[in-house]
Amino acid sequence: MTFLMLITSPFIIGFITLAFIKFIYTYWDRQGFVSVQPKLIYGNLRPTVKYQQTFSNNINNLYWESITTPYIGIFLLCRPAILIRDLNLARRILIHDHEYFDHRGGKNYDPFSANLFSSKTLNAPHLNEKLSQIFNSRNNQTLFETILNEGHRLTIELEKYANEPGPVTVNLQKVLQTHILNTLSSLCFGLNVNLFEANSIIHKQDNNQFKLINNEISKNGGTSRIQQALKFLYPNTMGKFTKGSTDVESYLVDTVHNVFRSRKENNIVRGDLIQLFINQQENDNKKEDNSTPLTIQEIAAQLFNFYSNGTQILSHTIASFVHELTHNQDELDKVLNELDLALKKNHDEITYEMIQEMSYLDLCLKETLRKVPPISLISRECTKNYVIESTGQTIKTGMKIIIPVTSIQNDPKYFKSPEKFMPERFLFENTKFMTADAYMPFGIGIHSCPGNELTKLILKTTMVAVLRQFVLEPIETNSEITTKCSKTTETDKHHELLKKVIVKRRTELNNN
């Protein structure tokens, strides 16, 4: 009997498990929701598990499975979730009825996750208020000189390639990533790292701690598609295994503390984010309304958050921005004409005001952010039962909600000819041809990215610094890259295109 039980037990357990999973997959039928047919074990994530698509691509592709319903039930492996397809419902969730969805679904196991984006709850008015004071247009103007200096450093690097005899192939993707790291290191921590130089601070033995920061970002940004999916699905469980390095935390807190002390003792003022936090803390301490200033640890967390998220967002977006302009000559010519006129008007000097007045450049960036938004998915978790007004169906507490931003912004229902690069669609007289509310590259509502204007300023300043002096000529074609990167994102294709670029001076091109 015992021997028989040993033999049959695995089969019984397997049968029960299989039956239970099949029962789970009837969830949406039992709830009366339209759903996408799941695959056993995989749910609707088979392309991700099979390494055929990224997690983001996989989810965004599900958007097109049912084009007539405002939302569809899906299965993230064995976990049910709701994919929002209707723009009005998405806006209700993110704006009007956000109190039902103030939860991303993960506990803060890492004590260093005291930032707006990794917080379990989105209802953090104290943090929201402090960050809105930091990320405003007045402060962006203060930061501009630092951003421009890094743009100048980028042009010096590109000049080396332009000086080579004959056309030289440049890995522009790597050059731009290095530029982004330089810019954010300077903006966030006041560090003059200059990663273009071999003897840069980051390459020195006594700066191993700064290497840890970048390694931590690389580790988080380079997780496998399966790990990304699991962190998205089961943040509580995965959070226990993905805690940040305590060495990085200690180093950053010490760095911020030392910079605070040094600048106060020596009356040093610099145009960077850490200075803005110093000013904010000093102002809060002077107020008589019992304003609670951010702690050093909270400030360090915010700086690390902007540095780590900014590294990925800016690197991806600048690749797409360059790609679109270098593959759409008419639009590039308009940008160059606008740039030349602006420089002539401004006595050949790049200023904050000049960047802000370059309206066509702004249109091109908006269109880039529409085609390839930096935030491709927005997720929420329902915190209390929510009745969908249009259908009367109920989203239950604990349900994962996903809004596929990339799909919405590339839906012909909202944007005419979405596959085309058409900056003019954002002109006031053309807005009738699109649904403006469908544009949300940095999220919408009170929980949208507070640093989006600073991000756009960095992108536009970088582009102006480069286009002022150089012409970029990618070697490989779109078709070649599409074949190579069929299993990756559109941004990855743009990265691949920039790995082989010829850099020429604009003056040389004009002379020819």
TrEMBL record:
Membrane topology according to the record: Peripheral membrane protein
Keyword RNA-binding among UniProt keywords: no
A cellular-component GO term for this protein: endoplasmic reticulum membrane
Predominant cellular place of this UniProt entry's protein: endoplasmic reticulum
Needed cofactors: heme
Regions that span the bilayer: 7-28
InterPro entries with a match to the protein in the record: Cyt_P450 (IPR001128), Cyt_P450_CS (IPR017972), Cyt_P450_E_grp-I (IPR002401), Cyt_P450_sf (IPR036396), Insect_CytP450_Detox (IPR050476)
List of residues binding heme: C449
Keyword annotations of the record: Endoplasmic reticulum, Heme, Iron, Membrane, Metal-binding, Microsome, Monooxygenase, Oxidoreductase, Transmembrane, Transmembrane helix
GO MF annotation list: heme binding; iron ion binding; monooxygenase activity; oxidoreductase activity, acting on paired donors, with incorporation or reduction of molecular oxygen
Subcellular location: Endoplasmic reticulum membrane; Microsome membrane
Top-level taxon in the UniProt lineage: Eukaryota
Family, similarity comment: Belongs to the cytochrome P450 family.
Name of the protein in its database record: CSON006403 protein
